[in-house]
Write a structure and sequence with these properties.
about 90 residues, alpha+beta, Alpha-Beta Plaits, 4-stranded antiparallel beta sheet, 2 helices, 4 strands, elongated
Length: about 90
């Protein structure tokens, strides 16, 4: 069993309020859940209106599959959220 963990440090330059930030983050979380069947939660920067920290976690059978999932998620974020500045930190357990 392999556990993949992705920590996304996100900067939302267009957000002018917490409400705008939450709309963007909610959309991102729902799309990741629906597309990749992963667990997603906002784990940091709750009260900052232009920053967020999102954790994405999944379980798979082997490391190759985890690497593929990492790549699919990274590509998905690049294609669907080009206006967000996202730093991605990946770990496998």
């Amino acid at each position: 069993m392999v556990i993949g963990n992705i920590l996304l440090d996100i900067f939302i330059s267009d957000a002018g309020s917490l409400k705008e930030k939450r709309m963007v983050i909610k959309s991102l979380k729902e799309k990741l859940r629906n597309r990749f069947n992963v667990s997603v939660a906002e784990v940091g920067s709750h009260d900052l209106w232009q920053s967020s920290q999102i954790a994405v976690v999944f379980v798979t059978n082997d490391r190759k599959e985890a690497d593929k999932t990492f790549q699919f998620i990274t590509n998905f974020l690049d294609e669907n959220f080009p206006d967000l500045h996202i730093n991605i930190h990946k770990e496998i357990y």
